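Exercise 7. Predict the structure of 4-hydroxybenzoate polyprenyltransferase, mitochondrial from Anopheles atroparvus.
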Amino acid sequence: MIRGAVSRGVTIVVPHQGWKWMKAASISVTVCHPKRNICLPANRCTKYVAPLLTSGWPLTGRSHTSGSIGNVGRRPAAHANILRTTPKTIGILPARGFASDNSDKKNVLPERTRITRPWMDRISPYARLMRIDRPIGSWLLFWPCGWSIALSAPAGYWPDPLLLGLFGVGAFIMRGAGCTINDLWDRDIDAKVERTRNRPLVSGEIAPFDALVFLSGQLGLGLLVLLQLNWYSILLGASSLGLVIVYPLMKRITYWPQLMLGATFNWGALLGWSATQGSVEWAACLPLYAAGVCWTIVYDTIYAHQDKVDDVLIGIKSTALRFGDNTKLWLTGFTATMLGNLITAGLVCDQTWPYYTSIGLIAAHLTHQIHSLNIHNPTDCATKFISNHQVGLILFLGIVFGTLYKQNSDERAKASISNNSTSGGGQLSAAVAGARNIAV
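Solution. The predicted structure, encoded as tokens:
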């Protein structure tokens, strides 16, 4: 057997009977391997060592032969330094170590690491602080804005793509800012919750001061987006900043932090309309806003059930704890309220059948979601929470197609009025003509 250790190398003793071309007594060679302990059968020595001895590889070791290895079949003269000593330059396993010198590769890899790894290591904690790896939050913040923009579009027109893109960027930035504020407030809490203990501020990857500087940059970018709108919208959007800052504290005070989150996340239902029309049509926007708040309570209660065990231990409040085993009943009530407000907003805006069809699909989706929910299974709660992205998309498409269909409805109504007036005028002319004939 051949045995060796990483720190001491490998000592190989090869009997002369193993190689027919060699008549020396034996050879002892020490081969160092940087990573592995080696234990090979003796009959494999020929495969790995013999080619090295004939090709001039600089193995570490001593020769116990009495002559040169290159003189096959002869008894060479004794020489004390047949093999050069080059400590720890090659290894036995894997075999590709014999095929090429890997010293260049070892020099290149650290260079690449110095170029790429520090850059990625600096960015990654801030990306995770913004939850870039979890975009569902940005979508849930964007959809009320998209609903409002599409609902305020003129009959027969698509929603303004520039405003949709602007609000999409704003939702991404402000959601990241909200996460930064939340993590700054909740550093002590997140350290005690299994799901959040690896967040960058808790693990020490980002210092609190650095997070504050980063938050300033996020809010600056958010303000830059907001300044692209009219002054009414700028003031309306700026007024929501208080909700963004205060929301993370609510879980310490009340069992209804999801209500505050709903008030914050659905501010776009008001802002989108004002960005399009220059002011808010309260009769349409308030029902839309209320529907969004109820929707947020539904999906964030489902989300909160993931952490309810840790929340009880550390004294954090949520609607998941408030509703308890009656969660499905409460969520059904909020879903019904949401649907009622959506119908009201549609009636105020003279929406058409595609809009009400989307409300029916949303009702079916949420009914199935609540009915199949397992509040004691965190994985199921997370899956149900993420599926609410589909609710926002379905309603947005319903509003868009419902608004486009308004043109056809208006044209048919005008044609019907025109036909009725033409028919009425013809009957009047016939009556006048008949009266004249009778008079004559």
